[in-house]
Structures are given as C-alpha cells and as structure tokens.
Amino acid sequence: MFDMMKMMGKMKEVQAKIKEAQENLVHIKVTGESGAGMVKATVNGKKELVSLEIDQDLVKPDDKEMLQDLVIAAVNKAMQEVEVLAKEELKKSTEGMLPNIPGLDLGGLV
C-alpha cells in the first residue's frame, strides 16, 4: 500500500536538496567570449553577470555600437552555457530522490 507519510517525508527531503542546489548555483561560473576574446562576460548559475572585461583597443568613441554588440553576444553566450550547467547541477543534487515520472521536468526551478 502507498505510504503517504513516507512520500511526504521524501518530498521535504527533495525540497531541501533543491534549495541547497539553488543556493550553490552562485558558485558555478561560466565566461562567454566574443570578438576573438576582446569582450568576456562571466555569469553565475543564478544568471547574474558577475564580471565584464573589455579589451582596451575597443574603447574608442567610434566603436561604441560594435562594443555594445560584442558585449551582448558575450553575455548571451555565457547565459546559454551556464543554464546547461545549472540544470546539470540541479539534476545531480536530486538524483535518486524522486521517482522517474515521465513529464516531470525540474528544469524550471533554475
């Protein structure tokens, strides 16, 4: 017979693991580059921009539009990569905790 108390206890354990995993996302860092490394943007697993490096040669008034495009490209690249790592981290921390339920996607928790 289905043990509801055991299931509730398991869910609390899963919630604690998910919360811990979400808190640890700040330690995951990914750097995206654009313009052959002239612009580097680093984001953490919480999708926060934590560092931005711009090559000195790019800081010219005439190049403002190009610089903006390169920054956008670097940040977007880092965001894409960190999302993959964050999902892997969340999956690792809850591995074996939840039954394999088709359609249950915890990716939205990141």
UniProtKB/TrEMBL annotation:
Coiled coil ranges: 4-31
A Gene Ontology term for the protein's cellular component: bacterial nucleoid
Entry-linked InterPro entries: YbaB-like_sf, YbaB/EbfC
Pfam families: YbaB_DNA_bd (PF02575)
Stated family: Belongs to the YbaB/EbfC family.
Protein role: Binds to DNA and alters its conformation. May be involved in regulation of gene expression, nucleoid organization and DNA protection.
The protein's name in its UniProt record: Nucleoid-associated protein C900_04380
Organism: Fulvivirga imtechensis AK7
Organism phylogeny: Bacteria, Pseudomonadati, Bacteroidota, Cytophagia, Cytophagales
